[in-house]
Amino acid sequence: MTDDDLARRLTKATHGGPAVAPAPVADLAHAYRVSRAICDLALAAGDRLAGYKVGLTSEPARATYGATEPAFGHVLASTVLQPGQPLSTADMFAPRAEVEIAFILGRSLSGPDTTAEDVVAATAAIAPAFEIVDSRWSGGPTTLAMLAADNTNAAYAFLGPQAPLPQDLSGLECTLKIGDKAIPGSAAAVMNGNPAAAVAWLANHLAAAGESLPAGAMVLTGTLCAPTPFTGGDTLFAEVSGLGNLTLATQ
């Protein structure tokens, strides 16, 4: 199966098609070629790249896949929900909610030597965010390469009001509420307490392919809490200290 064939199957699964049977993905280089092909298919169909997501930003998450570094995916404009827009779960398989800190860049960042301090200087604002993740693989990804090939499980994003960067990112805490469940979380879980380091990692990783992070890009930096399953009809509510609240209706 070619990279384009696999990309088309995963894309079809994203839009109501069947889950994709596990297929061999040789390594991360192969995985990111498939992920890039998925993005290219969307752009060719008229979509736009709104930004990126960084996953596996905590040690436990990396340990699950035997990873030594984070993984990234593309965030398409069509998957960024607007205020008041409900999330439809009709085409998803097993959606889960994450609470994240989104960085909005005021100027571009280019690796390979970008630091967290460079990210702070380039950031126009941050915002609390929901990331909705879902796997298009039948049974979910069983390897790091499968995860990355499927755009690192990216599904949807919803951003709250923008705010200036606080002095202490690691002190940000959250509570995710779904029905009678309350799931605590903290930015201390993200890149050892520095979500800006996730953006720096991404800039340096993209540099290897000759790419950079443009001004205006949005970067989701990894979940503060455990990814939590939900079903259509649930209302997702998150409170993030110092940044405010988020509410997202699902159907």
Automatic annotation (TrEMBL):
<dbReference type="GO" id="GO:0016787">
    <property type="term" value="F:hydrolase activity"/>
</dbReference>
<dbReference type="InterPro" id="IPR050772">
    <property type="entry name" value="Hydratase-Decarb/MhpD_sf"/>
</dbReference>
<dbReference type="Pfam" id="PF01557">
    <property type="entry name" value="FAA_hydrolase"/>
</dbReference>
<dbReference type="GO" id="GO:0005737">
    <property type="term" value="C:cytoplasm"/>
</dbReference>
<keyword id="KW-0456">Lyase</keyword>
<dbReference type="InterPro" id="IPR036663">
    <property type="entry name" value="Fumarylacetoacetase_C_sf"/>
</dbReference>
<keyword id="KW-0378">Hydrolase</keyword>
<protein>
    <submittedName>
        <fullName>Fumarylacetoacetate hydrolase family protein</fullName>
    </submittedName>
</protein>
<feature type="domain" description="Fumarylacetoacetase-like C-terminal">
    <location>
        <begin position="69"/>
        <end position="247"/>
    </location>
</feature>
<dbReference type="GO" id="GO:0008684">
    <property type="term" value="F:2-oxopent-4-enoate hydratase activity"/>
</dbReference>
<dbReference type="InterPro" id="IPR011234">
    <property type="entry name" value="Fumarylacetoacetase-like_C"/>
</dbReference>
